[in-house]
């Protein structure tokens, strides 16, 4: 397969707010644009349906697993566009009425959900110099408890993660052991931490795991003054940036040929040289 025949994937950048309907309408336009640019798979950012003024706002729009307007939107869009969709995160109800799961949901071209991964690592951090300053995701989000999730897609074996997971390389090693060729990292990185670490960490995860990386992000100002970094990007297994959007709503698309990845793993077999597992 030459580069022109390689599957194309899209990362979608959004500046989501507190209006779920408006956010879904924006996501729909951007998914259609991704499909028009030849993407077979498109990934939405974390919290694409809601970036409220308070972390607890997500409790008010949380859905039962398998039913609700956000999940319906994702399934309908995937089917209508003939597009695999990685639905950033969707707030799903848990047994704890005070907390939701931040669920990354994947839909195939039939509009059928084929995977769910619940964000494993929660952002309980103080960020000096940040507009919000103090983040405690565990107050309103329950951490995932399932195994690392890898699925087959038209673009290759896709491993799922979310935002703060990016700082935990052992998760990506586990995804690699399951055959991941592409790592997906939907995010809402803060402007402060994003400027310092976003690109650095994404490229590191690509290099050390010899994988493609798709990283759709939130950007700009959100309710209550929260600011996110943007800079959605798609990276190659050598750490090269294949596409990037610094700021503003939009779509980036890149082809992901499998042959260069296979050749790299064969000629530079770092994954076979591991002494610790």
Could you characterize what this model shows?
With 277 residues, the chain is of the alpha/beta class. It has helices at residues 20-36, 69-81, 169-177, 191-209, 258-267, and strands at residues 8-13, 39-44, 84-93, 100-107, 113-118, 124-126, 134-136, 141-142, 150-153, 156-160, 182-184, 212-215, 219-221, 227-229, 232-235, 241-245, 250-255. The strands form four sheets. Strands 1, 2, 3, 4, 5, 8 and 17 form a seven-stranded mixed beta sheet that branches. Strands 9-10-11-12-15-16 form a six-stranded mixed beta sheet, with helices on one face. The protein has a two-stranded antiparallel ribbon with strand order 6-7. A hairpin with a 5-residue loop joins strand 4 and strand 5 (113-118). The protein is globular and about 50 Å long. The model has no long low-confidence stretch (mean pLDDT 96).
What key phrases describe this protein's structure?
single chain, 277 residues, alpha/beta, seven-stranded mixed β-sheet, six-stranded mixed β-sheet, 25% helix, globular
Largest beta-sheet characterization: 7 strands, mixed
How much helix is in the residues?
10-25%
Rough shape? globular
Classify the oligomer.
single chain
| Mean pLDDT figure | 96
- Secondary-structure content class: alpha/beta
Give the C-alpha Rg.
17 Å
User: What percent strand?
Assistant: 25-35%
């Amino acid at each position: 397969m030459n580069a022109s025949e390689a599957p194309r994937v899209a990362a979608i950048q959004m500046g989501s707010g507190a209006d779920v309907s408006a956010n879904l309408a924006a996501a729909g336009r951007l998914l259609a644009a991704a499909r028009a640019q030849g993407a077979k798979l498109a990934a939405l950012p974390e919290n694409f349906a809601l970036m409220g003024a308070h972390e607890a706002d997500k409790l008010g729009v949380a859905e039962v697993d398998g039913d609700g307007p956000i999940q319906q939107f994702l399934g309908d869009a995937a089917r209508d566009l003939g597009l695999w969709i990685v639905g950033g995160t969707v707030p799903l109800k848990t047994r704890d009425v005070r907390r939701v799961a931040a669920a990354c949901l994947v839909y195939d071209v039939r509009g059928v959900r084929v995977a769910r991964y619940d964000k494993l690592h929660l952002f309980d951090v103080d960020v000096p110099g940040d507009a919000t300053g103090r983040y405690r995701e565990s107050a309103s989000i329950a951490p995932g408890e399932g195994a690392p999730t890898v699925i087959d897609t038209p673009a290759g074996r896709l491993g799922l993660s979310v935002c703060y997971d990016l700082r935990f390389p052992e998760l990506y090693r586990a995804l690699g052991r399951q055959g991941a060729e592409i790592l997906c990292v939907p995010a809402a990185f803060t402007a402060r931490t994003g400027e310092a670490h976003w690109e650095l960490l994404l490229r590191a995860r690509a290099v050390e795991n010899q994988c493609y990386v798709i990283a759709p992000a939130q950007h700009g100002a959100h309710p209550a003054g929260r600011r996110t970094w943007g800079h959605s990007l798609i990276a190659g297994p050598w750490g090269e940036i294949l596409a990037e959007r610094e700021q503003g709503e939009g779509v980036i698309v890149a082809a992901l040929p499998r042959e260069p990845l296979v050749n790299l793993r064969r000629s530079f077999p770092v994954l076979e040289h591991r002494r610790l597992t």
